[in-house]
Write a structure and sequence with these properties.
By secondary structure, the chain is mainly α. The chain is built from six helices and no strands. Helices cover 82% and strands 0% of the residues. The longest helix has 27 residues. It starts with a helix and ends with a helix.
């Protein structure tokens, strides 16, 4: 397998694996979600894994573009470290929300994630505008998730 192809596959596999492991740990989470009082505009539970899969693929492509960019190694490394940190924060959000049912704490954790996504997007933008643009739907979805999370915290 060519090095470039392998790097793309690994770049996409990492966020998919993080999301998949988190989903596995919180496997009963959507059952819990369905029973909660939810605000207007709440999407059906089946939509979440579809959206997250698309977002994780887009994140993976973005990280590959940064990894493969013609930029100093130190600059790319710093951007990818911030990316990895936000991915770790993303991983724990669903555990806090679905497994522990810490709805208000999860909202504040989501604010941290939101800030880290912005920071990652800025870092990516300095290296690859395309990579940054690929992060925008993720930022928008997490913004919407913040609305859902805070509303669920208040309604339950």
């Amino acid at each position: 397998m060519k090095s470039k192809t392998k790097a793309i596959i690994v770049s996409i596999a990492i966020p998919l694996a993080v999301g998949g492991l988190s989903a596995l740990i919180t496997s009963g989470g959507m059952d819990t979600f369905e029973k909660l009082n939810k605000p207007p505009l709440s999407p059906p539970g089946w939509l979440f894994p579809i959206v997250w899969t698309i977002l994780f693929i887009m994140m993976g492509i973005a990280s590959y573009l940064v990894y493969a960019a013609d930029e100093k190694l130190a600059v790319r490394t710093r951007a990818l470290i911030v990316y990895a940190v936000q991915l770790g924060v993303n991983f724990f959000w669903s555990i806090f929300f679905f497994s522990f049912k810490w709805y208000l704490f999860s909202f504040f954790w989501l604010l941290l994630l939101w800030a880290l996504i912005i920071f990652t997007t800025i870092k990516f933008y300095r290296i690859s505008k395309t990579a940054a643009y690929l992060m925008v739907p993720y930022l928008l979805w997490v913004t919407f998730a913040g609305y859902l999370n805070l509303s669920i915290s208040l309604l339950n």
